[in-house]
Amino acid sequence: MQEKAYRSVIKTISWRTVGTLDTIVISYIITGNLVMAASIGSIEVVTKMILYYYHERAWNKIEIGRHKATANDYHI
Questions:
Q1: Using CB atoms within 10 A of its CB, is residue 16 exposed (0-12), middle (13-18) or buried (19+)?
Q2: CB 4 within 8 A of CB 53
Q3: Which of 52, 69, 59, 58 has the alpha carbon at shortest distance from 15?
Q4: Model pTM above 0.70
Q5: Between the chain's N and C termini, which has fewer beta carbons within 10 Å?
Q6: 14-48 tens-digit pLDDT
Q7: Three-state SS annotation for 48-73
Q8: Considering just the CA atoms, what is the radius of gyration of the chain in Å?
């Protein structure tokens, strides 16, 4: 079973929200400057969303660790 592209988009946005908040907090701790931390976070949110989306789509094509349901599989 493969995921639809829109699922990858939703996962990309939710993960980047978490990741960007993390980057902003770490940047603030290091620089002590909230404006600088927000600037770093705003730059990396775009680049990393693009990278993650293509990473996710590539992994969707790889069969490693996937299990295909057979007719004998028990389903609840």
A1: buried
A2: no
A3: 52
A4: no
A5: C
A6: 888 899 999 999 999 999 999 999 999 999 888 88
A7: HHHHHHHHHHHHHCCCCCCCCCCCCC
A8: 18
Enter the DSSP assignment of 36. Answer: H
List of residues 6+ apart from 43 with CB closer than 8 A: none
45-73 pLDDT tens trace: 888 888 888 988 898 888 888 777 777 76
Place of tokens 């995921």: 3
Query: Three-state DSSP class for 14?
Result: helix
Identify the three-state secondary structure at position 2. coil
Q: Tokens in use for 57? A: 């789509």
Tokens of 27: 């940047």
Give Cα separations from 20 to 53, 62, 64, 69 (angstroms).
15, 27, 29, 37
